[in-house]
Design a protein that fits this description.
It is a single chain. The protein has three domains: 46 residues, Structural Genomics Hypothetical 15.5 Kd Protein In mrcA-pckA Intergenic Region, Chain A (Roll), CATH 3.10.290; 81 residues, Alpha-Beta Plaits (2-Layer Sandwich), CATH 3.30.70.580; 75 residues, 2-Layer Sandwich (Alpha-Beta Plaits), CATH 3.30.70. 22% of the residues lie in helices and 28% in strands. α1 packs across α2. It is elongated. The two termini are 19 Å apart.
Length: 216
């Protein structure tokens, strides 16, 4: 396979970052300097020389209602989105290695939300929501719903279609009044105030990266 794809699969760099390392003549295959487009196999010895290890950062951020998904900290980008009318947890990072693993529909990661509706929840709502809902020709994957009260429920999804929860509720004749994301995998919003950041470190970070990077 191409050397940039190989380095990306080994979680050493993104493909674009790998190309930059190759241009800087820092990548070697079996002792020979790699060039853009070089081919490599599992039996080849690949070395990165003279490259300073990038310091990856990860933050939990409480996005408030009324603002577009963006990063309040320079050099970081959000993993995924929350629509303008929603609020709650976003993960910000400068680690491009984990973008595909976290956002691709090939992988399954739990995200938990608290949702308030404008009308009283229908008696069949939980059962229908959990089995999957047809939204414009696509049937959503099964999810876990917990009814909190007549107007509030918690839902755990493993996928993230655009405006998915709002569209699912609409298909079941319920209109969302408030939508808050409280958890992404093991990262929880907790008591983090709106517009505030919390750096993810230690055991919390180890568990998160292990789940994202070491999946089949």
């Amino acid at each position: 396979m191409r050397i940039n794809k190989y380095l990306a699969l080994k979680k050493i760099s993104t493909r674009r970052g790998a190309d930059e390392l190759i241009r800087e003549q820092k990548v070697f295959i079996n002792g020979k300097r790699a060039v853009l487009g070089s081919q490599v196999s599992e039996t080849d010895k690949v070395e990165i020389k003279g490259a300073k290890a990038k310091e990856y950062k990860y933050y939990a951020y409480n996005k408030p209602i009324g603002v577009e998904t963006d990063s309040p900290k320079a050099g970081l980008f959000p993993l995924g989105r929350l629509d303008k009318a929603s609020h709650g947890l976003l993960i910000l990072t400068n680690d491009g290695r984990i973008t595909d693993q976290l956002l691709s529909p090939k992988y399954f990661h739990e995200k938990e939300y608290v949702v308030k509706t404008k009308e009283k929840l229908r008696g069949s709502f939980k059962d229908k929501m959990e089995k999957g809902v047809n939204i414009e020709g696509y049937k959503t994957k099964p999810c876990k719903v917990t009814i909190v009260n007549d107007f509030t429920f918690r839902v755990i999804l493993t996928e993230g279609k655009k405006h998915q929860i709002r569209r699912m509720c609409s298909a079941l004749f319920q209109e969302v009044a408030d939508l808050k994301r409280e958890r992404i995998m093991n990262i929880k919003l907790g008591n983090l105030k709106p517009k505030s950041l919390h750096e993810i470190t230690g055991k919390e970070l180890s568990i998160f990266l292990d789940q994202v990077l070491h999946q089949s």
